Amino acid sequence: MDWQGQKLAEQIMQIMLLVFAVTAFVAGYVLGSFQMMVLVYAGSVTLTGLITIPNWPFFNRHPLNWLDPSEAEKHPKPQVTVISKKKGSKK
Amino acid sequence: MHSFGYRLNGLLTFAVTILALMCVIASLSDNLNIPSPSAEIQIMNINWFQKQPKGSDEVSLRMNISADLQSLFTWNTKQVFIFVAAEYETRKNSLNQVSLWDAIIPAKERAKFWIRSSNKYRFVDHGKNLRGKEFNLTLHWHVMPKTGKMFADKIVMSGYSLPEEYI
Question: What's any GO biological process attached to this entry (chain B) (predicted)?
Fold first, then answer.
């Protein structure tokens, strides 16, 4: 995923879980069944996971532009020269 | 959120936290329920009333317990535990409580009932104070939730008394 996609995935996940939690609670309360609330919530967690966890294409709409390899070869990385200093000796 | 594992972990952690919150709210919703239970106990018969060899009084009685506890049940109730206790006063103790019978009610449909039974647990005194004793029969209940706080209350029924002499 790209950066925008990750942010989108996190937002979708949080909003979906909150909305489904409220839905599950209301459903359970109205039906008078605790089991119904837990089942609806478990189903919604699975659904949210299926939408936000795998690397779907719509999470990759703003891909990062990595430098082309042939372009990178034309500008080699500068070499770092190592200067070793010995304590107490000055020449 | 840059890998499958990170997203999975984030999802599961958030989901479980929200589930805990839902359970707290479910428990708080129990306070909205205002129960209106009723109960009645008749002593049908005193089977026997004797002094044990080493001293204490003991009585065996047959009771007819009828109750309507359906209003105690909410969506968050797992079961209701009830017990009947005999309460009386002696010279030594201001309150003696002896549990005579108990039961577990697993569902609302079973909460309206009557049962005729002799006492499940022995009605024994500390001493020889039971002759002619007046006592209350109290029906206690504990509403045990699926999650959260347990509520307990009771109904006190008075006016029962034991015979003056041993049977």
Answer: protein targeting to ER
Domain assignments of chain A as residue spans, ordered by start: 3-63
* Interface with B, mutate which of A7, A8, A10, A22 (most B CBs under 10 A): A10
How many angstroms separate the CA of residue A80 from the nearest CA in chain B?
Answer: 32
pTM as predicted: 0.80
Q: Please name which of B32, B30, B59, B61 lies closest in space to residue B44, comparing C-alpha atoms.
A: B61
CA distances for B128 relative to B18, B52, B56, B167, angstroms: 58, 9, 5, 14
- Write down the ipTM of this complex: 0.78
How far B28 CA sits from the closest chain A CA (Å)? Answer: 12
pLDDT, tens only, B130-162: 889 999 999 999 999 999 999 999 999 999 999
CATH number (2.60.40, 3.30.70, 1.10.1390, 2.40.30) of B34-161 reads 2.60.40
